[in-house]
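lol forgot to send this yesterday, sorry. struct tokens for the thing we talked abt
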């Protein structure tokens, strides 16, 4: 009988959890030879909590205890764990946040502020997470500003007087031990095609395993790009970078307990149509803030500012030309000044562009 406290670890890709691999195979109950170094595909057939029987259906990657109902996730060899953030914002709440953004965001055309959303769909953005426990030492030197006591000399008698404090930059040796967890995040899809940036993740957010049936069937899950091995190599280089700010540091750092996870972040994708053109507003599915948005721009303020600048230039030219009417030398100077001011006006007019859209992106997103 298998031990009740053992846990399901991993199965090889393509293998099925069935009688042959669980209880009836040639390697069951230690039947393999002493020299067999193959990794067992299943190390227990009992629930690790209550020792009840485990069941699976078809090609599902989950096992369910028939007694206590706990579910276990079976990770394939060479794969990575998949987790997702549960959305806390409902569809109508997301639409209300989007309408509020249209009504209050500066620079949006007045007619577009009353637009109605024609589509609201929940998206899940894939994001790679690499984390490791970094330990080791960093050695080197860095410059620090310190208060140094210096004697004050009497310039008349050239004798020492009272001491004074001076700020000086002095080298300082660095010997810092490191033992903390570091994380590295990277978007697993082309988010630029959607007009969004990678949502900010700190690692303290609550996520749950991505099991079959957990995500709503109406939601759209973006396909992840890249591999766990590539992300692990890149993340390892990032987390092992020295952080002591030493000049030419001599770092001896090691990454322990490495783990690569694929996270799925929820965003509500809201769309509206204005003058036969489609615009989008993205709402964070976890906290309801506006992640990004586009809208038709109102150019009334920019046009008014530009016309006011031209009027000011015209006044300057008139002031310069008025006193030059009685002198040929002053007239030549006024003409030169008028040419310079006119050239500046032409450059401003050439650089002026009517802004077509208002674009917004959440601060600290990348």
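and heres what i got for the seq, position by position
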């Amino acid at each position: 009988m298998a031990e009740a406290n053992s846990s399901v670890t991993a199965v090889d890709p393509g293998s099925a959890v069935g009688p042959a691999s669980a209880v009836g195979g040639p390697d069951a109950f230690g039947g393999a030879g002493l020299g067999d170094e193959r990794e067992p595909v299943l190390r227990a057939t009992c629930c690790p909590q209550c020792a009840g029987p485990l069941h699976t259906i078809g090609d599902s990657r989950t096992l369910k205890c028939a007694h206590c109902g706990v579910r276990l996730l079976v990770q394939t060899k060479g794969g990575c764990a998949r987790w997702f953030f549960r959305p806390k914002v409902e569809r109508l709440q997301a639409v209300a946040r989007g309408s509020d953004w249209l009504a209050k965001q500066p620079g949006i055309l007045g007619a577009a502020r009353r637009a109605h959303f024609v589509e609201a769909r929940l998206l899940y953005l894939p994001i790679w997470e690499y984390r490791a426990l970094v330990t080791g030492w960093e050695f080197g030197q860095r410059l620090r500003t310190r208060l140094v006591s210096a004697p004050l000399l009497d310039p008349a008698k050239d004798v020492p007087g009272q001491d004074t404090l001076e700020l000086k930059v002095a080298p300082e040796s660095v010997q810092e031990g490191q033992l903390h967890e570091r994380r590295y995040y990277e978007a697993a899809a082309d988010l630029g095609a959607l007009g969004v940036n990678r949502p900010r993740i700190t690692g303290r957010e609550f996520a749950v395993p991505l099991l079959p049936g957990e995500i709503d069937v109406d939601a759209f899950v973006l396909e992840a790009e890249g591999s766990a091995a590539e992300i692990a190599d890149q993340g390892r280089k990032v987390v092992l970078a020295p952080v002591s700010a030493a000049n030419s540091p001599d770092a001896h750092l090691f990454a322990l307990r490495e783990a690569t996870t694929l996270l799925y972040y929820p965003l509500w994708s809201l769309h509206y149509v204005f003058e036969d053109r489609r615009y989008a507003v993205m709402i964070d599915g976890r906290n309801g803030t506006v992640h990004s948005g586009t809208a038709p721009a109102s150019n009334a303020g920019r046009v008014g500012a530009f016309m006011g600048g031209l009027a000011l230039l015209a006044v300057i030219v008139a002031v310069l030309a008025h006193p030059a009417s009685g002198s040929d030398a002053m007239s030549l100077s006024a003409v030169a000044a008028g040419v310079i001011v006119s050239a500046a006006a032409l450059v401003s007019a050439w650089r002026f562009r009517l802004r077509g859209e208002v674009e917004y992106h959440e601060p600290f997103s990348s």
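Residues 300-357 form one domain. anyway ping me if u want another try
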